[in-house]
């Protein structure tokens, strides 16, 4: 009869199992991606190719925003981003692609690690147990559709997200808090909504640092790439969403994209979009501020990220990587035996997961539910199903926001204000910990 395992031995076995599961998940992805890489299905990385191309001296200095990579892809980031991408053209393309995949996976794990440290989870959870949870969450989040698309295209979304998470989860008296948000906004304009969040949430000192950092990136871009900077900032190339791609394409999971797909160009879509976007911006930002003031930093940042994705004219599905910290936060809350948080984590993961589907080439690969319409036309779907799947991310995010607002308004009559619920109860936790 085998002797009983000690608690230390059980802990080591649990840790080894969690690490094995955590490593097996990305290894499976890399093997699958490499297998189908020659078919340009999971190893396309065309965005990484554009980054590499934009850093070439001739392109950067003379025709950064007029030339097109391979004749059809435009560079849409800031001149400062092109400066940062300059060294990439010196790296072998195969090495660069493998490096991008591994670096993105590292950023994914680090973002989960940051969230689990600041999630307000069970204080009884030891450091080693928290790290085990990180590995398990990492194994799951590798197969989220936004993460899959980020890896497939060689995107920078995970890098920008982890920079902002690491920046804004630091103590509010940190000397450089907010600077990384400004630098992220100086690379890609969409993170600028976090500067607005810092302002409206009363974090004015951090907002000033972020704005100063963003301004510094603009100055660097002007000094090194004056012609490109003139085209981007003065000739308003940054506002030309048509340079990015088709608004109606299913991958554009923004309110603008959803409205364009539903209206089919029959009405004045831009005017309707501006009205809806303004309402969503006010609603989302006010909710993010309330969540932050209750003491929950991570969900407030996720809420801000979701709001930015909804109001932006173009929000490709790979931009929705903010579901990763949201799932990680909800999972940590679920460990406090909170049924609502567990359902929230499972529901979010199921919605944004990359499920195995067989495409037109008869090759089974992971795709998000939003691609179901394009992958299953032969099933004779109805318009209602198409409308739901094509706009799933937008509809889910808007529904959660509306339910959140109704919950807060109806809560007082039920004797359950939002600050007493799973989502916003940090104040109560602090009081109980001080007793």
TrEMBL record:
Keyword Transferase recorded: yes
InterPro entries: GT87
Compartments reported by the entry: Cell membrane
Entry's transmembrane regions: 16-35, 69-89, 178-199, 211-233, 267-285, 320-335, 342-365, 385-407
Topology relative to the membrane: Multi-pass membrane protein
UniProt keyword terms in alphabetical order: Cell membrane, Membrane, Transferase, Transmembrane, Transmembrane helix
Species of provenance: freshwater metagenome
Signal peptide residue numbers: none
One cellular component term from this protein's GO annotations in UniProt: plasma membrane
Database matches in Pfam families: GT87
Protein name from the UniProt record: Unannotated protein
GO molecular function: hexosyltransferase activity
Record's keyword annotation contains Ligase: no
